[in-house]
Design a protein that fits this description.
Length: about 350
C-alpha cells in the first residue's frame, strides 16, 4: 500500500514538473513572438539584407534610424498621418459632401481676386507692335521625373536622401517643437520644399500649426510669413495630409492669396480627388504642379519599384511626372535599386519644372 502511494506521489510530481516546463516554454515563446511583432516587416527585411550585404553601410544607417530609442517604424509614424493614408480616407467622403462641394464651387467668388470671367482687360494700344524677337530654341531633353520625399524631419533622413544615386527633392516639415531641426536639414540641400500640414477629413491628431479651413486670411498669411522667414530659399510648398483643406474653395483661395504675396508656388499632393488647386491656379493665373503617382502605397521594395515604373511611364506619356514617397526603410532600399528603371527619363529636382 505504501509503495503504491509513493508511486502516485512521484507520478503527480513528474506531471507537475512537466506542466511547469510547458508553461515556461509558452511564456518564453509569447515573449519572443511579441518582440518579433514589434518589428515592422520592412525593418526586418532591411536587417536580413544588411546581414548578407555587410559592405552596404547605407542599409545599416536606415536600420539604425528607425531603431532609435527602440522606436519601431509603426511607432515612428503613429502620430504622423501620411498623404497616402489621407488619400485613402478621403475617398470615403460621402456623396452628399461631394455634391455640396460642387454646388459651392458654382457660386464661389474669390475674396482676393476677381473671377477669370470678370477680369477687366486693358484697352488695345494704338502704338505699333514691336518687332518680334525669335525665341531661343531649347534643346530637347528627356521627360522629367521629379521624386519628392515627404515628411522629412531629421538630419539622418536628409543624409540618406543625399546618398541616393539620383536627385530627390525633400519636403521638410516646418519648424515646430516636434521638428526642431528642419532648418538644419534645409541647409543640406540646394533645392527643397516645405511640407505644410493642412486639415484632413479623418486625422484626429494634427501636426502643430496645421492650417484649418476655418482659419482667417490673416492667420494663413502669418503662417506663410513665418515659413518664409525660417526657410528663405524654399522652392515650393506642398500639403501634408490636407484632404479637407484642399477641397475647400474658400480655404484654398486664402492660401493662394498668402502664397502669392510671398511668391511661393504650390505643389498639390492630391490627397483628395476633390482638390481645388487647379481652379485656384486658373483663377490666380499661376502654374500649379500636382502629384501623379504615390510610390510607397504598399510598404515593400517590389511595390515601390512597380510604382516607380508607373511614374516613368507617366513621364514619358506627359513629358513630366511627379512622384511622392516617404522616408521608410523599404522606400530607401527600393530607390537605391531603381536606377536601371529610369532609362528614358531624367530625374530632376522640383525647381526644373518651374
Amino acid at each position: 500500500m505504501s509503495s503504491l502511494l509513493l508511486r502516485i506521489v512521484l507520478t503527480v510530481l513528474l506531471v507537475l514538473s512537466l506542466l511547469l516546463l510547458l508553461i515556461r516554454a509558452y511564456v518564453e515563446y509569447k515573449t519572443s513572438r511579441t518582440a518579433v511583432k514589434a518589428l515592422h516587416p520592412s525593418v526586418a527585411a532591411t536587417t536580413s539584407s544588411s546581414a548578407t550585404e555587410t559592405n552596404d553601410t547605407s542599409v545599416s544607417r536606415i536600420q539604425a534610424l528607425f531603431h532609435e530609442s527602440n522606436t519601431t517604424l509603426d511607432q515612428k509614424y503613429k502620430n504622423v498621418a501620411s498623404e497616402i493614408m489621407d488619400f485613402i480616407h478621403a475617398r470615403e467622403m460621402k456623396k452628399e459632401e461631394q455634391n455640396q462641394s460642387r454646388a459651392a464651387a458654382k457660386k464661389f467668388v474669390s475674396r482676393c481676386r476677381q473671377p477669370v470671367g470678370e477680369i477687366t482687360l486693358p484697352k488695345p494700344s494704338l502704338k505699333p507692335e514691336p518687332k518680334k524677337v525669335p525665341h531661343k530654341v531649347l534643346k530637347p531633353h528627356k521627360p522629367y521625373l521629379v521624386i519628392i520625399m515627404d515628411d522629412i524631419r531629421s538630419v539622418e533622413e536628409g543624409e540618406m536622401i543625399r546618398q541616393l544615386p539620383f536627385p530627390v527633392t525633400p519636403s521638410i516639415f516646418p519648424v515646430t517643437s516636434d521638428h526642431p531641426d528642419t532648418q538644419e536639414i534645409a541647409r543640406m540641400f540646394h533645392t527643397f520644399m516645405i511640407h505644410m500640414p493642412m486639415e484632413a477629413y479623418h486625422f484626429s491628431s494634427p501636426e502643430e500649426n496645421t492650417l484649418f479651413t476655418g482659419d482667417s486670411l490673416r492667420t494663413i498669411k502669418q503662417r506663410i510669413a513665418d515659413i518664409k522667414a525660417d526657410f528663405p530659399r524654399l522652392t515650393a510648398i506642398n500639403n501634408h495630409t490636407g484632404s479637407k483643406f484642399t477641397s475647400d474653395l474658400e480655404a484654398m483661395d486664402k492660401l493662394f492669396c498668402a502664397l502669392g504675396e510671398f511668391g511661393i508656388p504650390f505643389v498639390d499632393s492630391r490627397t483628395s480627388a476633390a482638390t481645388k488647386a487647379r481652379e485656384m491656379a486658373k483663377l490666380f493665373h499661376r502654374k500649379v504642379l500636382e502629384r501623379n503617382v504615390f510610390l510607397d502605397n504598399e510598404d515593400s521594395v517590389p511595390s515601390v519599384l512597380n510604382q516607380l515604373k508607373e511614374a516613368v511611364a507617366y513621364a514619358k506619356a506627359h513629358k513630366q511626372a511627379i512622384a511622392i514617397c516617404h522616408p521608410k526603410p523599404t522606400t530607401f532600399e527600393a530607390l537605391k535599386q531603381a536606377k536601371p528603371l529610369l532609362k528614358g527619363v531624367e530625374v530632376v529636382t522640383i525647381d526644373k519644372l518651374y
